[in-house]
Amino acid sequence: MPPPLVLDYLKKLDSRSDYEPYLPGKREKHAMEKGFALLPELNREVLEKRLIGVYFIKNFTGNGLCEWVMDRDGRVFVFLVFNPSSLKKTISGLLTEKEKTCFINDDSSIRIDVDCGTKYPGFYYILLHESTHAVDYVLNITPYVDESYRRYAKKEKSETEFTEDYWRGYSASKAHFIFSNRVSFYHIGKPDLKISEAVAVYEDLARSPFVSLYGSMSWAEDLAEMVAFYHITSILKEPFGVYVFRKKEKIFAIYPMAGPSVIKRFPLLKKFYRPEEL
């Protein structure tokens, strides 16, 4: 159960009064154990040393959160928060629901589907994503994960090997795309992209170095999405495709991990794995 301090913090953070603790059942705990065992080597190592809590919150905004705390010696630790609904959906179902929140539905004939197979629960994707944020907090693979951490830890570095060719600031990519600075998810803020322009948006994503629209929001999300989808496709051997339909007709398909600009970045992920896993 989350300590009252944590629950109160999350309610205040998201301006929500309906957050309630949730304890996973036996089957759900087994699925969690399998998820942690399947993480990249570096993610597991960081969590073993720096993870202080895993909490499930009913009605949680979005699907997950990695939050930081610091001890008196300046060492950063993390706790993870999950929406329990992620245990009940497949990765494909969870990502399809998530992607829909990015668009204004101005054309009811168009829909978007995300295919990551049906073998794994959505929790695995969220765990991959959030545990990569944990690695980033501890090892600073990007200059900093969020503004509050930057200010508190006095992080002034403006680029790292992961960001130097792609980002000129935390949420400012060096190249401009049709979706740049127009992306929001989970109804946090109002979406600016229209579903009627989905094909143009995904055509531009296919030309970009980002594996998802979510990853284009900041260098921190870029890293978390890159590791999550690399692991899903290259290690777990599941698909990753985004499809645009008009009624029943598929009018566009994108396979982000096959994009030349994305493949070029794969060597930046070596530190997450043992050599024999690559």
Keywords:
three-stranded antiparallel sheet; single chain; 36% helix; 11 strands; alpha+beta; 278 residues
Structure description:
The chain has helices at 4-14, 26-37, 41-50, 91-100, 122-139, 147-153, 198-207, 219-235, 260-263, and strands spanning 20-22, 51-58, 64-70, 76-82, 103-104, 110-115, 167-169, 172-173, 193-194, 241-246, 249-254. It is of the alpha+beta class and 278 residues long. It has one domain (4-151, 159-277). The longest helix has 18 residues, at 122-139. The N and C termini lie far apart (37 Å). The model has no long low-confidence stretch (mean pLDDT 95).
SSE diagram, text form:
Layout: H1 4-14, E1 20-22, H2 26-37, H3 41-50, E2 51-58, E3 64-70, E4 76-82, H4 91-100, E5 103-104, E6 110-115, H5 122-139, H6 147-153, E7 167-169, E8 172-173, E9 193-194, H7 198-207, H8 219-235, E10 241-246, E11 249-254, H9 260-263
Helix pairs in contact: 3-5, 4-5, 5-8
